[in-house]
C-alpha cells in the first residue's frame, strides 16, 4: 500500500490543505493498492497564486532558455521511465507493450515541444506592424486518466514553450503516475511556481481553476460533458480555452481495400488503449457486398485478441480503469443487444477464465445502424460497431452523421480515392492506411470533439496571443 500525501506548489512538495483521502485501485485485481490525499479549492488558489507570481519573469525568458528547460524536463522524465511504466501497469492496467509506449510518450512530448520551439518565430510582420506572439498568462491544465503522464507532460510542454506558467490538475485516479512525473519535473530544476501540480477532484480543484480570474487559459482533455461545463465557467472571465474531448471515429473501408491489412488495422484502431481512447475507431463502415468477408476476418482477428492480465505480453486489451467504467461498458453491450445489433464477437461479462478485474470481452457488433445508441455515444471500451454502406456517398454521410469529429480512418488501395474521402470527412485528423502518429501535425476535434489544436507549433500557439506594435518598423 502506498500513500501519496503531497502536492506540488511553488517549487516544493507540500501537504494539501484538503483532507479527503481517495482510494487507488489496481484495475486488474480490483484491489486497493494505495491512497491519495486530495487537494481542495484553497490548494488550487495557492497554486494559481504561485503561477501568477512566477509569470512575469518566466514570460520574459529567452526562447533558448525555455528550449533548455524542456530538454532538462525530457531527460528527467526519461530517467523515470521504468518507474512510470510500472505505475502505468499497476494503476491503469495498460498491457505491457502499451505501457512502455505510454511511458516513453510522456518524455517524447517534451522533446517534440523543444523541437517545435526551436523552429518557432515569435515575431513577424503584418503590413507596417510588428506582430509579437505573447504568452497568455497562467494556464490551467486539466487532464483525464487514460494517458495521465502523457497529457500532463504534453500540455505542460506546450504551455511552458509559449512562456506561460501553469497549474496542472490531473485525474485523481492516476495519482501514482502523477507523483512520479512530478518528482521527475522537480528534478529538472525549473524556477519555483512555473509549474504546480494539484491532484484533486474536478468539482473542487478543477472548478476553481476554470473559474479563477487569474487563470488566462484552460487546456482540458476529457469528456465532452465536462468540457462544456468548463467552457461555460470560463466564459465569465473570457478565458481562452482548448478542449480535447470525446470521439466516435469512423473507419471507412473502401470497396477496393486489402482486407488482410485493413481488418487488423481496424481492430487495432478500435481496441487501442483497451478501447479507452478518444481517437478509437469505433464505427467501422464496410461496403455491403463485402460485409460477410469482412466479418469473417474480424471474428478471426478478435479471436486472437487477448483481454486479460496486462503483464502477459500476449495481452492487447487490459482492464477498464474502474468499476464504474466496467459497468458503463457492460451497459452499452446490453443496449447494443437490446437495440437489435448482431454480436459477431464478445458480449457481456468477463472474458473466459478471468475471475476478477475490470476486464471486458472484446466485442464487435454488426448490422448496426448509425442511429443506434452504440453508434452514437462514446462507449470508451473495446466495443465496436460495423455499419454496412451501399456507396461512397452514403459512407461519407454516415461518417459525418455524428456529433463528434476527432479522428477518422480510411482504408483503400487507391490513394486518390482515399484522399478524396479524407477531404470530405469532418474530423481533425484522418489516417489513411496507417495508425501512425505525427507529433508535428495539429491534433484536435471538429464539432463536439473540441475546440483548438494541440501538438507542434499549433499547440504552442494555443498559449499565445498576437500583439501588433505599430510605428517601430
Ligand atoms: P472527465 O471529463 O470526467 O474528467 C477529465 C478531467 O476533468 C479530470 O481531471 C476530472 O477530475 C476533471 N473534471 C471533472 N469535472 C470537472 C469540472 N466540473 N471542472 C473542471 N474539471 C473537472 O473525463 P475522464 O473520464 O477522466 O476521461 C475520459 C474522457 O476523456 C472521454 O470522454 C474521452 O473521450 C476523453 N478524452 C479525450 C481526449 C482527446 O484528446 N480528445 C483524450 C483522452 C480522453
Automatic annotation (TrEMBL):
E.C. code: 1.2.1.3
InterPro entries: Ald_DH/histidinol_DH (IPR016161), Ald_DH_C (IPR016163), Ald_DH_CS_CYS (IPR016160), Ald_DH_CS_GLU (IPR029510), Ald_DH_N (IPR016162), Aldehyde_DH_dom (IPR015590)
Coiled coil (residue ranges): none
Organism: Paraburkholderia phymatum (strain DSM 17167 / CIP 108236 / LMG 21445 / STM815) (Burkholderia phymatum)
MF-aspect GO terms: aldehyde dehydrogenase (NAD+) activity
Protein name: aldehyde dehydrogenase (NAD(+))
Annotated signal sequence range: none
Keywords (A to Z) from UniProt: Oxidoreductase
